[in-house]
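REQUEST ID: PR-0412
SUBMITTED BY: lab tech R.K.
PRIORITY: routine
TASK: structure prediction, single protein chain
INPUT:
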Amino acid sequence: MNVIGLRKEEKPFETRVPVIPEHVDMLKSRHNINFIVEPSENRAFNAEEYMEAKAQILPLKGSSAQVVLGIKEMPDDFFERGKAYVFFSHTIKGQPHNMPMLRSIMTAKATLIDYERILDDKGKRLIYFGNWAGMAGLSDTLYILGQRLEVEHMRPNPFKHMKRTLECKDLSELKDSFRALAKQIEIEGLPKRLRPFVIGFAGYGNVSRGAQELFDLLPHESVQPDELAQTTSQQNLLYKSVFREEHMVEPIDPTAKFNLQDYYSYGKGKYKPVFERYVPYLTVLLNCIYWSDKYPRLVSKDFIKAHWKDKHRRLRVIGDISCDIEGAIEFTLQATNPAEPAFTYLIKKDRITSGVSGEGPVVMAVDNLPSELPRESSTSFSASLLHYIPILANADFTVPFDQLHLPRELKDAVVVYQGNLTKNYEYLRKYTEQLGG
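STATUS: complete
OUTPUT:
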């Protein structure tokens, strides 16, 4: 079983690849792994680059590839019996829109391995695009901020000339745009009404670190969340505040103390949200956290309705990089795309409208942000996956699950095996059964 397939991506603006041509060539020469690359006109790396790496360009369905690697969701009718599919399935929270796909994998008697569940012993992801999502998410959010400030006729507006991430050819050009923004802030200053100008980063993982890497090119000072009330108005300086779990929630029991592992175990069963106490100090909020309905929200509809009545509020834009629909940001009602990255939540009407105009906060909710830096993000992702590809290529996915030889982190990421949900993911059965039929 030494044939790996690379699936074409069909989502708009998605040009990333799981394995770059350079690594295909390396795996072929060192491990005698053959690659079949599905034809596509929509890849950051073209067919010629893969052919030079000795890959075959052929349709995958019906091919000899026993393991198929992709990035995003695959079509319901694509899965074949006995084959293993490795991609971001977006099923592990029981997401309704992907339950038909999950059931198709089960019906086909195929195997699903989800990158999102390849974790180290401490529960941290080993295969991820998070830092690239953070970079693109910050850039798009500040671009949107510039557009919103123009709508409000707010001056000075050093953000108005920013490009969308999609318009930058690579990371180098994106960083150059941030250096140019830094100069504009030093020359023009920031709108007096929005000062102190605070950008809040909810979370401190890969997504947040990627966003902060770009942000740190701008003139700024760091401030702890509990010290936000002491910040002073600075004409040419931004403030950065990074929020951890203990800033987002507190125990329901007033006599109890916050404990991180206890919070992860019990979520909103024992903890209540408190993040909203910090929102009045923020001009921009970047949501970079992992969220499920086990945990309290960051910002609710009820809060934003009340907060928007404050004539002195500074909040203008929320960059919902994590992009859980009706999740941590309750009024993220749909995902956006790189070409039209923003919507405005119309508070009085409880609905959204595309763009940056309207009475309510603007939300950036692009759900495939790393695709805006496709070659760099693919190269980084491919490097993190490289170690596991020979293991996957040589695994025998026809044996019973207890005889499947995979390292612990890969085996724990097997959501479906030969058509059956594995023990760790049995909870998903109720979601597939709700489909009926």
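NOTES: The longest strand covers residues 197-202.
REVIEWED BY: pending
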